[in-house]
Design goal:
Two copies of one chain form a homodimer. Chain A has eight helices and six strands. Chain A has about 190 residues and is an alpha/beta fold. Chain A starts with a strand and ends in an 11-residue tail after the last helix. Strand 1 of chain A pairs antiparallel with strand 1 of chain B.
């Protein structure tokens, strides 16, 4: 038995975060997030996914997450879940209203379910669900109208921003033989 | 910026785990889990929910989780997510095939989505989704056929085991004025 759950972050991630310069342009925030997904492949620390929590008003980066499933052995550590948790730890509250989650790909079924609990106000995605499935990842059993369900809860959703750039990162992961980890499919 | 995500567990939880004596009876495992949910209320460490990961073959308890959302400020820390993560940390792998997740309540939309990624083979629940909603918690936007979706992935689902006992714990939380935390509803 253990008395804590401790998730060390890759050293590069903490350094990489410092490269972000607050910018009102959401496109710039997305470029930064997609670069983090690419770096996660290069560093061998996880799947080709990244997500950042940004303040909506001053555009500050609160936390950056990448997929750490294969390197930590924790299946919940999708980029979105890590970014949300790090932001909440940083702010000392589970309430992320007034924040935007910028993701290199649309959420899987787990991350979709996690969004309302985080209080996040806005979701911006690059690659589509279909793009992620195209390289072999399972996105889970999602509501067909998942975007509408989020919007009904007051979460603004923007899709397909810089989709092609994010797809290139997914393809690069596949071409380099990146692990398509999936306990359930085996 | 932080260089790790560290989630200290309540001291009582680590001690409480030691009370479990391996038993082939799933009903006994459920009683133990419901007791943990009740204890979580008494100790003021979170919502009225608990979950345990048990080995299917020898019935050993691998990890016990309780809801720690209000005490940690992390919205992903539902009992199921913590139990799964602690079990994976303990076993050094994200693959929990051959394990059973015993929960004091049916999974919310996030935990539903997390189950296939964990590889868990079996899910046993006590309180129903409707029981959880009845005391004011939001269960999220779930597929109407969520149980069937899990079974199609090879995850066996057993519902409503000791449902009344679990409902009593939920009602006790409500009667004691337990916090119905929900960033999104505010």
């Amino acid at each position: 038995m253990v008395d804590n759950l401790n998730i060390p972050l890759p050293t590069w991630l903490t350094l990489f975060e410092k490269n972000y310069q607050a910018c009102a342009d959401i496109e710039a925030q997305m470029r930064f997030v997609i670069q983090a997904a690419s770096k996660n492949i290069d560093m061998g620390t996880g799947g080709p996914f990244a997500a950042g929590v940004f303040q909506q008003d001053n555009h500050a980066l609160v936390a950056l997450g990448v997929n750490l499933v294969p390197s930590t052995g924790l299946s919940i550590l999708h980029a979105e879940m890590l970014a949300i948790s790090l932001a909440q730890q940083q702010l000392g509250t589970y309430d992320l209203r007034g924040h935007r989650l910028v993701c290199s790909a649309e959420p899987c079924s787990m991350c979709f379910g996690a969004l309302p609990w985080s209080g996040i106000s806005e979701l911006v995605c690059a690659a589509a669900d279909a793009d992620v499935r195209a390289i072999g990842f399972d996105e889970g059993d999602k509501l067909p109208n998942w975007q509408q369900a989020l919007e009904q809860r007051g979460i603004r959703v923007i899709n397909a921003m810089q989709r092609e750039a994010a797809v290139q990162v997914l393809k690069s992961y596949q071409q380099h033989g990146g692990e398509i980890y999936n306990s359930n499919a085996n």
